[in-house]
Amino acid sequence: MNERTINASWITQRPIAHRALHDEANGILENSRSAVLAAVNAGYHIEIDLQLSVDRVPMVFHDYTLERMTSATGELRDRTAAELQSLRLKNSQDTIWPLSELLEIVAGKVGLIIELKGRAGADEGFIQSVAAALKGYQGNVAIMSFNHWLLADANQFAPELILGQTAKGNDDLYKIHEETRLAYNVDFVSYKFADLDCKFVRETNARDMPLICWTIKSQKDANVAYEKTDQITFEGFTPEDLGSTGDMAR
Hints:
Layout: E1 16-18, H1 33-42, E2 45-52, E3 58-60, H2 81-85, E4 97-98, H3 99-106, E5 112-116, H4 126-134, E6 141-145, H5 148-157, E7 162-167, H6 174-183, E8 188-192, H7 199-206, E9 211-216, H8 219-228, E10 231-234
Parallel strand pairs: 1-2, 1-10, 2-5, 5-6, 6-7, 7-8, 8-9, 9-10
Antiparallel strand pairs: 2-3, 3-4
Helix pairs in contact: 4-5
């Protein structure tokens, strides 16, 4: 395993707005410019999703297909960045947008945690494109993924980036989670809230590795999560300051 000097402690210092601070009832949709601006203004860290356009531009969008969030259909990966930027999000004035524009808006004001949404066999150059966009960025930023091939590419092509392992499941998945952690030099873990009572989470806590969880939707669940993790990824409510003091919460 390569030795790296990485400080990921900033990830635990503030609650993390899931897909930015969205509020669909008021036309602020997930992963949109408006949601990112709202999170920046509120002082929350931001979690957003990235996928790769057909011309290899990292675009801010969660779903593999377009129909839930736009009036278009089909795979995001089948369209160019220019085509995607022309698509308006439903019931919103926002459009799909590239990572480069998001970085200009965030500009280091809050931390940014980027989940890479991969398609097996369709992601050649994804890590390199993200690393190129992040080159020279002065703010706190980390990448994470469920996709092991993207974690492997991050190790090879962007070892300077803070790297997170996104995971879920009970003890039946302990072995694969532990092998992933060891194989890809991960710096933090993001785990599903409903699955926190498992051996892998307990061992992550024992290592004093930053541990965040997803997705918290009430203060009641936040209070439970802070007993088991260092920080929450939240949506749909305004969290109290609990756990956002800059120290590990547990």
